[in-house]
TrEMBL record:
GO terms under cellular component: cytoplasm
Keyword Lyase included in the entry's annotation: yes
Enzyme Commission designation: 4.3.1.28
One term of GO molecular function: lyase activity
Keywords on record: Lyase
Name of the protein in its database record: L-lysine cyclodeaminase
Family annotation (InterPro entries): NAD(P)-bd_dom_sf (IPR036291), ODC_Mu_crystall (IPR003462), ODC_N (IPR023401)
Keyword Lyase: yes
């Protein structure tokens, strides 16, 4: 057998590849369009909860994406709420890529940064198609890694006049707002409570880190015509939230309709979100097969749980840029 080599990119390599905001969004938008056209395979994510009494679990995401990428991938990412107590981010991940014709492993990438970037990009692409074009006020709950990329990539598309952020701990939300203010070159306000953050905002993103479901985001705070994007692992929204929506959109119904976790798990179980009430998957909208926003007065909800194809597509884009710059490590596999 001829020697087999794979490419390894650690966190520093991923950062050094330095994808631009536009490159990140383009990679994710293209992959969503491929999903909408049926050019991908997505297996519903699986969860591993290894220890009782620990606030955390592992997500295992699997998929294949065709087109010019033609790669299969598996990502394992840990999601541990209390990691801040140890000085760690809440999520660590590894992305493994394979040749789908032979099963030969082709690459291993640190997926922590990829998870953050691709999540923010799905939020941004969703807003591109589902938010009002004149949206100028963003209210964002949560300050973890994905939160940074939500705000950064959304702002790259909308150039907000006002950005408000909130998280449970002041020592988290204040530095988060300061970092965003520096990076975006505009004032980002850290609010002391949920209502001040989201009430009347054109786009509301809920990426909280609750230890258990709790209705912290009140339906009455949502402005008519707003886009609401809740994706916390534990639900932070009221059961009535879906009642005010003109359209309910998800990233993948196969993942959203089952499982233990998710922002709208209770809504699925209550029948408020079902195949009958679902407007579309985001990929169908991006591919032009289903309409997105059709009027300014539509209040729309997007729930995305995270797609393996997003990880694969962004990983592929990072590998290509890293290779062109001579970044990364070549490892002998066999």
């Amino acid at each position: 057998m001829q020697p087999i080599y794979l490419t390894y990119l650690n966190r520093f390599d991923v950062e050094a590849a330095a994808l631009t905001d536009g490159e990140i969004i383009a990679a994710i938008e293209a992959s969503l369009a491929m999903q909408g056209r049926g050019e991908t395979v997505i297996e519903p994510r699986m969860h591993l909860e290894p220890r009782a009494g620990v606030e955390g679990h592992f997500n295992v995401l699997r998929g294949w994406i065709g087109g010019g990428i033609d790669a299969a991938g598996v990502k394992v990412v840990g999601d541990f709420v209390d990691n801040y107590k140890h000085g760690f981010p809440s999520e660590f991940g590894i992305l493994n890529l394979f040749d789908p014709r032979t099963g030969v492993p082709t690459a291993i990438l640190d997926a922590s940064g990829i998870t953050d970037m691709r999540t923010g990009a799905v939020t941004a692409v969703g807003a591109k198609h589902l938010a009002r074009k004149g949206a100028k006020v963003l209210g964002h709950i949560g300050a973890r890694g994905t939160a940074y990329w939500n705000v950064r990539l959304l702002n790259s598309l909308f150039d907000f006049d006002e950005i408000r952020v909130h998280s449970r701990r002041p020592e988290s939300r204040v530095p988060f707002a300061e970092r965003l203010s520096r990076d975006l070159g505009k004032t980002v306000v850290a609010t002391d409570d949920w209502e001040t953050c989201v009430a009347g905002a054109d786009i509301v993103v809920e990426a909280s880190r609750l230890p258990a479901p709790e209705p912290m985001l009140k339906t009455e705070w949502i402005k008519p015509g707003a886009l609401v994007v809740p994706y916390g692992t534990m639900s932070a929204v009221e059961l009535s939230l879906t009642d005010i929506m003109a359209k309910l959109v998800v990233d993948d119904w196969g993942q959203c309709k089952g499982g233990k976790f998710g922002a709208l798990r209770a809504h699925v179980e209550a029948g408020k979100l079902s195949e009958a009430t679902l407007h579309a998957e985001l990929g169908q909208i991006v591919a032009g097969l289903r309409p997105g926003r059709e009027s300014d007065d539509e209040t729309i909800l997007l729930w995305h749980r995270g797609l393996s194809l997003s990880d694969i597509a962004l990983g592929h884009a990072i590998l290509a840029k890293a290779a062109a710059a001579g970044i990364g490590h070549r490892l002998r596999y066999a």
